[in-house]
């Protein structure tokens, strides 16, 4: 583990534990507002996307022991290299976006990949070519969908076509395929 000079980092807002074993981080300005999540799973800590590198965020992550990072889309990388240098965690990314990290050791997957009995990755292109979702089937039953679905004013989630959307048709096809991968009562929550 390589320490960051403590005084060189902004203090930041501490991550909030929103359910047992599930923390949410403040949106990351370095990655267009990506919201990162930390899960305490049966297979160890897992970070979904990269939060800001702040004193508060590193304090929580450094206490977790060895873990993994899952990147759900290409704009979720933020300060990944700095974070991996500090934590020495394994990185998972869909194979179509691995070329974006040519000097990093990463684990890749194609269509779907089980990371543990209660963790699965699904390739869901559309927002970016290698976008993916992480399904935590544990007691929380949460689908972490990156930019595939976005919150709406009515409290629901929906796909949103933006100037940054890679391919709208593939995004809609990914939603249909995701419904096939998930069970009838899944997910319980969407993040």
Notable features of this structure?
27% strand, 191 residues, alpha/beta, globular, five-stranded mixed sheet, Metallo-beta-lactamase, Chain A, 3 helices, single chain, seven-stranded mixed sheet
Task: Describe this protein's structure.
InterPro entries: Metallo-B-lactamas (IPR001279), RibonucZ/Hydroxyglut_hydro (IPR036866). This is Metallo-beta-lactamase domain-containing protein. The protein has 191 residues and is an alpha/beta fold. It has a single domain (6-184), classed as Ribonuclease Z/Hydroxyacylglutathione hydrolase-like (Metallo-beta-lactamase, Chain A), CATH 3.60.15.10. The chain is built from three helices and 14 strands. It has a seven-stranded mixed beta sheet with strand order 1-2-3-4-5-6-7, with no helix packed on it. The protein has a five-stranded mixed beta sheet with strand order 8-9-10-11-14, with helices on one face. A two-stranded antiparallel sheet has the order 12-13. The mean pLDDT is 90.
């Amino acid at each position: 583990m390589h320490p960051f000079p403590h005084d060189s980092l902004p203090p930041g807002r501490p991550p909030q534990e929103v359910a047992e074993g599930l923390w949410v981080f403040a949106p990351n300005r370095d990655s267009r507002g990506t919201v990162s999540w930390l899960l305490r799973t049966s297979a160890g800590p897992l970070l979904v996307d990269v939060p800001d590198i702040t004193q508060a965020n590193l304090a929580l992550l450094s206490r977790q022991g060895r873990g993994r990072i899952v990147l759900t889309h290409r704009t979720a990388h933020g300060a990944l290299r700095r974070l991996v240098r500090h934590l020495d965690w394994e990185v998972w990314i869909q194979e179509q976006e691995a070329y974006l990290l040519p000097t990093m050791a990463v684990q890749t997957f194609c269509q779907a990949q089980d990371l543990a009995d209660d963790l699965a990755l699904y390739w869901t292109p559309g927002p970016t070519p290698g976008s993916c979702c992480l399904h935590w089937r544990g007691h929380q039953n949460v689908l972490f969908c990156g930019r595939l679905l976005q919150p709406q004013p009515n409290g629901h989630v929906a796909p949103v076509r933006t100037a940054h959307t890679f391919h709208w048709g593939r995004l809609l096809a990914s939603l249909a395929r995701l419904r096939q991968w998930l069970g009838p009562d899944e997910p319980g929550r969407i993040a």
